[in-house]
Amino acid sequence: MILKHHLVLTLCAVYGILLKVTAQKSTLRGSSGQQPLVQNQTVTEGGTANMTCRVEYNDQTSLQWSNPAQQTLFFGDKKALRDNRIELVRASWSELTISISEVTLADEGMYTCSLFTMPVKTAKAYLTVLGVPEMPEIDGLTKPALEGDEITLTCMTHGSKPAADLRWFRNEKEIKGAKEVNASGKTFTVTSSLQLLVDRDDDGAAYTCKVDHVALLQTPQQTTEVLEVHYAPRVAITNSLMFPQEGQYLKLECVSKGNPSPDPVMWTKDGGELPDLERMIVEGRELTFTTLNKTDNGTYRCEASNHLGTSSAEYLLYVYDVPSTLHPSTTPPPRPTPPDTTAPLDPHLASSDPPNTNNRDPNAMGQHGPDHALIGGVVAVVVFVTLCLIIVLGRYLARHKGTYLTNEAKGADDAPDADTAIINAEGNTHAEEKKEYFI
Asked: What's the pLDDT at 230?
């Protein structure tokens, strides 16, 4: 009996220990499982925010959402605050989810989820509201601007949170501006300025200000302005023939660029009016010669102007003779090419002043081929003078050919005949020594 009693006591002690361990585990499990869980939320102004509170284990204890002002929004499935923007999404013992539509910057702050246990357990979630920047505006653009002016373009956007970033583009190529940020309550006003020294290349250029912001996602807002620049004209002359010949058709075009457009242009020849309007036809910027001849040689000038200035260009026309060969040749006539006085085609190289051509008269002697008759005459004179010199020299040599005697041998001159003279000469013992020879 005593043995049975001790066995019963032992079993009871073990059972008590098991019950105590089980109770401790249950207490720890309930303590950790009934902690509410929340997450921070970020939403764009005007969007909808969903606030969710969950618990893993709940013994039918109520959940509650409160706003940053500690006003109760929902207690379980019961709405406590009269705000049509706040709606119940899901309510159960393990979850309470509400939605706030048309969110404003005033809705930003710390929201609290409460689990009404003993004691009450809470969890906090921060709602961040992004301020959407307004459409940017560009100021400082004067239309039209004048070449050489200094202007400042300013781009501004309001209402961004956090501060937006402004970027400048000129014809889709990014350029750098000067940025300035000013706070206005919870939002920011951002300004970016761009300084320009205007030239003719800016005429028609598109300047774009673009806003980059996290609230805009993949659709950045931007504004574009097209710059109009007025500038004085620049002129150049193009021709349709490289080597104009008599009887051919020639067209000269006065290419002028300016804003406002310098239309019409004025054509002159050698400083005066065109002499033959029947063959020289002016249509717009073109001067056409229906049939070229030698009288058309000269300097032609085209002039264009607008209210900002005047520019001109000159072209020296030299009409070549028609080749005498029966077969057409692709090579130009054998004459030196006259100076190329065509104004430069690049409008940036042209000047508003008339170009200094330094032209020579196309009919001057230096521009024709060599005179063969003159060369032949010079050669004939040289040959004639050479022959005369040879003849004179030959006669001189012929007259002095042979021997001659000195004055000491002149005694033979008194001999009556040649034989006596020879005998007298031979009798002179010193005559041989005094005889000289001309070699």
From this structure: 94
